[in-house]
Design goal:
By secondary structure, the chain is an alpha+beta fold. It has four domains: about 150 residues, PAS domain (Beta-Lactamase); about 100 residues, Beta-Lactamase, CATH 3.30.450.20; about 70 residues, Orthogonal Bundle (Helix Hairpins); about 160 residues, Histidine kinase-like ATPase, C-terminal domain (Heat Shock Protein 90, 2-Layer Sandwich), CATH 3.30.565.10. Helices cover about 50% and strands about 20% of the residues. The protein is built from 16 helices and 17 strands. A hairpin with a 6-residue loop joins strand 3 and strand 4. The longest helix is centred in the N-terminal third of the chain and has 50 residues. The chain is rod-shaped.
Length: about 600
């Protein structure tokens, strides 16, 4: 990975090498030009001296063959008439078109540098016009000399020069390295500071260095202040997040928050429980429909987003065999109050299952009580009106009417007493006698005494099976009430001279009290509902027997008060067995 250190060092090295190369090339090119220019100027000066010293150029040139200089004499038409290095001048080409010759023929001094076509080597040329005593141009004198190239001249100095250049580059690289180190050291420390501040701001413990420049110190101070402020804000945000999470999870209402795509980003504990979402279920990629499986909630969320207004609805969920009812308030989420486009939807779900059930119970209760009271009230009213019209001389009719009124009044009184008993049992805050350790046989015998007269009228013998010394910690009066209700039903719905009895015993982990009879029994399809309020297997017969339809419901509530249960086993025409089952740990330890 490229770092500031390597990047800086690379830039410095490239810069130094580039500058050295550019400087070297520029110097060499300048020296090359100066080299040839100097040699040409010296050659021209020499040619002028020679021309001024020669009386007969053509005769003198022939004697200069061993000179390092080459002398050439040409006529005005460019034809060579004498050359110091060639004897066979007849084969030489005409030199009129040579640039230095042209310049000399024009009356000036000509200079040139090129490879000689005749000798095939590089020469410097200087040409001058030759005049006679009268000033007439007699021809052109050209002086040339073979010179080594500039690069050959400096070849011997190339190695020292190269070594010097390498030393310069190394020195520049070393200085660049030191500069890069001094630059990257504070940057690395600041980078570590920034990384620590980003990962865990409260652990920023890096001390500032006194070796840094003022700019770095100021920058590091700013970063430290920023890290401290960031750490403080993170702590505040975490605290606020935990506080908000605690509040949301402590709510009895379920809370769902989602974006405009209906992707959930907040679900509190209550909502997770309602929709069976595990705590590890990732949010952000979970849609409202996938989490709740409710098209009603999805449609409501779309309406809230489209209208940008809150909405309230009633939601019923079916799961686990029981229906749950919720009042759902859905409102748009707005980032700014001035914004017209919502950023999502928040839903608050209030569980109103208990309220719905209570409302249903209340409705059923009112309907059932009204139904149960309607008939006796009508009978009392009818026979009262009949008695008012009956002459006092007819005592038999008066007696019959009063008997009907008394019977129905007693039925209404029993109904009211049973209703009050149910209310007392359902109200956990109502005053109750404490649970006491009591002998069960004593409780059962008291219940038998309360029902003995009714059984004697139908010639029904009562039998009791309960071992002496069997005790339990129970609400004694309520246990007696439950046994009386069960015995009363057994006697009412059993034919004369049949048998009715009760027994108590212990089973693994439970205390069992059973009341049995050999009466009409209960059909199988009614067994699950006999403990409901006002439920009667045979309404006409039950009402004729004086039942209120609340006795078995009272028994069930007494069992629940002891954290137990009541069961029934019956077959039509064969009798019934009602079992009151109480947990031993409850009846013994409470």
């Amino acid at each position: 990975m490229k770092t500031l250190f390597t990047a800086t060092l690379r830039v410095l090295l490239i810069s130094v090498v580039s500058m050295v190369l550019v400087f070297t090339v520029a110097v060499l090119l300048s020296m090359n030009s100066l080299y040839y220019e100097t040699n040409l100027r010296n050659l021209g000066d020499t040619a002028q001296i020679l021309v001024s010293l020669m009386d007969e150029p053509q005769t003198g040139i022939a004697s200069l063959g061993d000179s390092p200089y080459r002398f050439t004499l040409m006529q005005p038409d460019g034809r060579v008439i004498a050359d110091s290095h060639l004897e066979a001048i007849g084969d030489m080409e005409n030199h009129r078109d040579r640039p230095e010759v042209k310049a000399a023929l024009a009356g000036g001094e000509g200079r040139a540098r090129r490879n000689s076509g005749t000798l095939g080597v590089q020469f410097l040329y200087a040409a001058l016009p030759v005049y006679d005593r009268e000033g007439n141009m007699r021809g052109v004198f050209r002086l040339s000399r073979q010179v080594p190239s500039f690069w050959q001249r400096i070849a011997s100095a190339a190695l020292p020069f190269l070594c010097f250049g390498i030393l310069v580059i190394l020195a520049a690289g070393g200085l660049g390295y030191l500069f890069s180190c001094s630059l990257s050291r504070p940057v690395k420390r600041l980078l570590e500071l920034a990384r620590t501040a980003a990962d865990n701001p409260q652990e920023v413990t890096i001390e500032p260095s006194s070796e840094d420049t003022r700019e770095w110190i100021l920058l590091e101070g700013a970063l430290r202040r920023m890290a401290a402020a960031l750490s403080s804000r993170i702590r505040a945000a975490r605290l606020e997040g935990r506080r908000l999470e605690t509040i949301l999870n402590g709510m009895t209402e379920g809370v769902l928050a989602m974006d405009t795509g209906l992707m959930l980003h907040l679900v509190n504990s209550k909502a997770r429980g309602v929709f069976a979402l595990d705590e590890t279920t990732p949010l952000g990629s979970l849609s409202l429909l996938a989490a709740t499986h409710s098209t009603e909630l999805e449609a409501a969320a779309h309406r809230v987003l489209a209208r940008n207004t809150p909405e309230e609805l009633h939601l019923t969920l079916h799961g686990g065999g029981a229906a749950q009812h919720f009042r759902v308030f859905a409102a748009p989420l707005k980032g700014d109050q001035d914004r017209l486009t919502p950023e999502g939807v928040v839903m608050v779900m209030s569980d109103i299952t208990r309220l719905v059930k209570l409302e249903q119970v209340r409705t059923d209760f009112v309907a059932n009580v009204s139904h149960e009271l309607r008939t006796p009230i009508q009978l009392v009213k009818g026979f009262s009106e009949n008695l008012l019209d009956t002459p006092l001389t007819d005592p038999e009719e008066i007696r019959h009417g009063l008997g009907i009124i008394a019977k129905n009044a007693q039925g209404m009184e029993n109904l009211i007493n049973d209703l009050l008993t149910l209310v007392r049992l359902e109200d956990e805050g109502s005053p109750r006698p404490g649970m006491e350790e009591q002998e069960l046989r004593v409780l059962l015998e008291e219940a038998f005494q309360a029902i003995s007269l009714q059984a004697k009228k139908k010639d029904i013998p009562l039998s009791l099976q309960c071992p002496s010394g069997l005790t339990a910690k129970v609400y004694g009066s309520f246990i007696i009430q439950a046994i009386i209700n069960l015995l009363d039903n057994a006697v009412k719905y059993s034919p004369p001279s049949s048998a009715v009895g009760a027994r108590a015993f212990t089973a693994p982990g439970a205390l069992v009290i059973q009341v049995w009879d050999r009466g009409i029994g209960i059909p199988l399809e009614h067994l699950e509902r006999v403990f409901e309020r006002f439920y009667r297997v045979d309404r006409a017969r039950s009402r004729e027997a004086g039942g209120t339809g609340l006795g078995l419901s009272i028994v069930r509530h007494i069992a629940l008060m002891h954290q137990g249960r009541v069961e029934v086993e019956s077959h039509a025409g064969e009798g019934s067995v009602f079992s009151l089952i109480l947990p031993l740990e409850r009846v013994q330890d409470t």
